[in-house]
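Continuing the batch. This is chain 6 of the set; chains 1 through 5 are on the previous pages. Same settings as before, nothing changed between runs. Recording input and output for traceability.
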Amino acid sequence: MNIGQAAKASGVSAKMIRYYEQSGLIPAADRTASGYRDYSDTDVHMLRFIRRARDLGFSVAEISDLLGLWRDETRQSAEVKRLAQGHIDELEKKIKDLQDMARTLTVLVNACHGDHRPHCPILQSLETDIENEDLAIQPRSGAVARPVQ
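Output for chain 6:
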């Protein structure tokens, strides 16, 4: 099947299929006499594997490792589990980091009056490199502090 048919059958865009070939994640497709890529059912199966791994957030490098384990019939499931657990740990760290960002932004948004005045704790926090400072109650440098109404 051609690249368009393989893309449709696998759920991976033709552009990504070419990228996966170029990066060595998948072997180069066979070519027809006229030079077009020719994909087999096995190629499509591998592309589906890659798509599902990408859907779970695995990086290209991690997918390469997973493909190697998938192809290795002497593998131990402990290797696969270790790789997947490492990915879970990374995801949980990202979740924690995102929750921390959301909490910080929530504090800043709640401290911002959102009115006609120029003072904005959100911008103030972005302009300083001091961490953990309560910026919500400090006027911007060089600005005239106005009483809160």
